[in-house]
Write a structure and sequence with these properties.
single chain, about 250 residues, mainly alpha, about 0% strand
């Protein structure tokens, strides 16, 4: 099987189900199998995440909260831009503590806060979107956590969106962030990722997304939500564990 079909299948399956984890899955696979440097790996990972998110949105866009996704995604990008140099000056232990704190908050929001019975938060003001976007941009830049790892718990706990709406809303934000990142890096034309690689990646993503989509149809909605939460929990725990491992080794 082609490497790009394999990566696309795995990331498409995970991203369409949880709204997160694309970079966490694709980065180590690209490093291991292609042996690229960190810059090229990050660019190729962005392409994987972008294609998977676009396909996921294509199948779920009717359930996405587009004003929320676009506003939060835009302001997360704007707030992240000036923080690169600040992060480089922070001690490693500060980043580690922030990483673990945010990961713990995400798990708490996912399983405890979002499960508390309360009416949906209808205060979908532009101001609240702006504040949420800025916070996501700051936290993702400082900690390195992917946007979806924060966005899905945020949508679930702050606005009480159902999981079926939080995931596609996260995917729309990821499409925006990935596209802007590739644009500013000037990487829409990359020698390592041509038409053939794109076609294979798209095929893998499409198959992975379709398998997840039609697998869910056999489950009741409450079990669909449980499965999505379990998948996102696994992604968050692996993120936290891998960061701790890199810190002490």
């Amino acid at each position: 099987m082609s490497f790009w079909i394999f990566v696309g299948f795995i990331v498409g399956f995970a991203l369409s189900g949880t709204g997160a984890g694309g970079a966490l899955i694709s980065v180590p696979l690209i490093l291991h199998y292609l042996g690229t440097n960190l810059h090229d790996t990050s660019v190729l990972s962005l392409w994987v995440v972008l294609v998977a998110a676009v396909v996921g949105v294509a199948f779920q866009w009717r359930k996405a909260n587009l004003p929320m996704a676009l506003s939060v995604g835009l302001f997360s990008i704007l707030s992240a831009a000036p923080l690169g140099q600040i992060k480089s000056q922070l001690p490693a232990w500060v980043i580690l503590v922030a990483f673990l704190a945010v990961g713990t908050w995400s798990l708490w929001s996912l399983w405890i806060r979002s499960s508390k019975p309360s009416p949906a938060n209808r205060n979908h003001s532009f101001f609240r979107y702006t504040i949420a976007g800025v916070l996501v941009g700051v936290i993702t830049t400082v900690t390195g956590l992917g946007g979806g790892v924060l966005l899905v718990p945020l949508f679930l706990s702050l606005w009480k969106l159902p999981m079926s709406e939080a995931v596609p809303t996260s995917l729309v934000s990821i499409v925006l962030a990935s596209t802007v990142s590739l644009f500013f890096q000037g990487e829409f034309q990359n020698q390592l990722f041509g038409t053939s690689e794109f076609g294979q990646l798209f095929l893998g993503v499409l198959v992975g997304t379709l398998i997840f989509k039609y697998s869910l149809r056999a489950l009741e909605e409450k079990y669909q939500t449980l499965l999505r939460k379990q998948g996102l929990t696994l992604i968050i725990l692996v993120s936290m564990g891998s960061y701790v491992y890199r810190f002490f080794n």
